[in-house]
Design a protein that fits this description.
Layout: H1 2-14, H2 41-56, H3 64-80, H4 102-110, H5 115-125, H6 131-134, H7 147-152, H8 156-172, H9 174-183, H10 187-196, H11 205-218, H12 221-233, H13 235-242
Helix pairs in contact: 1-11, 2-3, 2-4, 3-5, 8-9, 8-10, 8-12, 9-13, 11-12
């Protein structure tokens, strides 16, 4: 039901010019397009973890690994169309996104391992502003960002979402904010980790689906509110650890 709902919602928005923040060229996902491509060892490890988790949740069947590889390689190829060429010694600014694509993997599980549906959804989703915040590889060395931002190697989620989380945390949960301040560890660091991993290894699958759905339906600012609500939920534990 969730797959159908977000599919219809994104399909509807992506056809409306006023809702499309990014314009994307037409990309046709084919086996031939990625025939000579291969995944890095880190991505391969991520694929194995995703498939293991998907089977544990009874969402995936046999051959899911090949389908997911197909999705990830096509996503890389498709996003490459809007990437800049950057000369930098920073590892994170190499041609390939340095981490694993947890958002695409989450969508793959929501779509019950249907690679074609996943790619179709991601292509439409990439036109919307919310894709910049939920799908981190979307803005990797992107031409949509100022060159100075690209060269810094800092993702906009860090200086937009994480910055606002810290501001809100100070106002809404001053004790939690103080606890972080005393520890010398910033809330934005842990939030960036949560967001990058799409809350995998932190929340149950149902809650991960709710996080994605809420941000897609209500807008990227809900990413901030969800992080604040997690901190509110963990307040007693955080204060106990601080003591």
């Amino acid at each position: 039901v969730l797959a159908e709902l977000i599919e219809k919602f994104v399909s509807h928005l992506s056809e409306s010019r006023s809702d499309c923040y990014f314009s994307m060229g037409n990309y046709k996902a084919t086996d031939a397009a990625v025939k000579n491509e291969s995944l890095s060892s880190l991505q391969q490890l991520g694929v194995e973890m995703t498939v293991r988790y998907g089977k544990y949740l009874n969402l995936l069947k046999e051959h899911a690994e090949n389908e997911l590889r197909f999705v990830l390689m096509n996503c890389e190829k498709f996003l490459k169309q809007e990437q800049r060429t950057v000369v930098s010694s920073l590892y994170c600014l190499r041609e390939r996104y340095a981490g694993y694509d947890w958002f695409a993997s989450s969508v793959f599980l929501i779509m019950s391992g249907d690679g074609e549906k996943t790619l179709m959804f991601l292509q439409r989703f990439s036109r919307l502003l919310v894709s910049a915040f939920l799908w981190l590889p979307r803005l990797h060395i992107s031409m949509h960002l100022p060159i100075a931002t690209v060269e810094s190697g800092i993702h906009p989620v860090y200086f937009c979402s994480a910055h606002h989380i810290e501001m809100l945390l100070k106002a809404e949960l001053p004790l939690v904010f103080s606890a972080f301040h005393m520890s010398g560890f910033t809330p934005s660091q842990i939030c960036l980790q949560w967001i990058t991993q799409c809350f995998w290894n932190y929340m149950d699958w149902n809650e991960i689906c709710h996080y994605i759905a809420v941000c897609v339906f209500l807008g990227p600012d809900y990413q901030i509110y969800i992080c604040i609500s997690v901190f509110r939920h963990l307040q007693q534990d955080i204060l106990k650890h601080t003591e």
